[in-house]
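FAQ

Q: What does a record look like?
A: Structure on top, sequence underneath. For example:
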């Protein structure tokens, strides 16, 4: 299993990490975000971590950027894929709040996500470290889905990489959102069984409990096992810090290049 390590913690006085989540009417969403923030703070005790939501939950982005009051920060989206929320919603919300902040990349794709998916499968009872078990088991990578074709390609590429590097009998992408083109969970389960998988496990490619994970679980009746959402898996906290570090270093480099050009 992937065991990536974070680089050394940045020096004291580094920019705050502003974690931007979508928000949900389901209280489990905010609880999951709070659990992730606790993991981030445990990994980087000296780092100032703030949370803001686009809708449904508090605090909203303008409240948080006002509290930061111009202090240096890096915005880190709690999103798996570069679709509408990443490309449009979050940049627009930052502009509307008057915050000119470096914006980190979304979480996917990354080996840390594959490691988190396997952690949840193991917790559900699947022996993910057995080569023989993996060779007999098909995985349904059950994503939310998006109307953005590029986002779908990235998810399918992650599924192909997961199968290639870990030797699963198959990894099929399925979507919970009705607007997304492609398999639904029952179709993906049937496809894997038809291709020879002896067992089929459903791995929700979602960050927090809510309507779509519930829909996936309800549709997985013919699967042998359904894992939990990624949630506050340690790998997700590490990946968020990794994206923060990338954006922080990139912003610092951009400022340095600007100063040199100005000279």
């Amino acid at each position: 299993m992937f065991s990536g390590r974070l680089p050394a913690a940045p020096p004291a006085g580094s920019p705050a990490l502003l974690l931007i989540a979508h928000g949900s009417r389901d209280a489990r969403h905010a609880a999951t975000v709070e659990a992730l923030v606790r993991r981030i703070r445990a990994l980087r005790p000296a780092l100032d971590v703030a949370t803001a939501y686009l809708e449904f939950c508090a605090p909203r982005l303008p409240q948080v950027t006002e509290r930061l009051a111009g202090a240096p920060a890096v915005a880190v989206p709690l999103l798996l894929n570069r679709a509408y929320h990443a490309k449009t919603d979050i940049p627009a919300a930052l502009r509307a709040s008057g915050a000119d902040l470096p914006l980190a990349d979304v979480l996917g794709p990354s080996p840390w996500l594959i490691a988190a998916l396997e952690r949840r499968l193991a917790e559900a009872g699947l022996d993910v470290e057995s080569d023989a078990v993996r060779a007999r088991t098909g995985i349904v990578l059950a994503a939310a889905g998006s109307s953005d074709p590029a986002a779908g390609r990235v998810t399918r590429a992650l599924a192909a990489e997961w199968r290639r590097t870990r030797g699963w009998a198959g990894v099929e992408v399925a979507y919970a959102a009705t607007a997304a083109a492609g398999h639904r969970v029952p179709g993906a389960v049937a496809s894997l069984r038809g291709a020879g998988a002896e067992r089929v496990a459903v791995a929700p490619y979602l960050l927090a409990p809510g309507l779509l994970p519930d829909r996936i679980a309800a549709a997985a009746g013919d699967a042998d096992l359904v894992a939990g959402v990624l949630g506050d898996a340690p790998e997700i906290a590490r990946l968020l810090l990794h994206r923060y570090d990338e954006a922080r270093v990139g912003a610092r480099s951009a400022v340095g290049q600007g100063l040199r050009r100005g000279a």
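Q: Is there anything notable about this one?
A: The mean pLDDT is 91.
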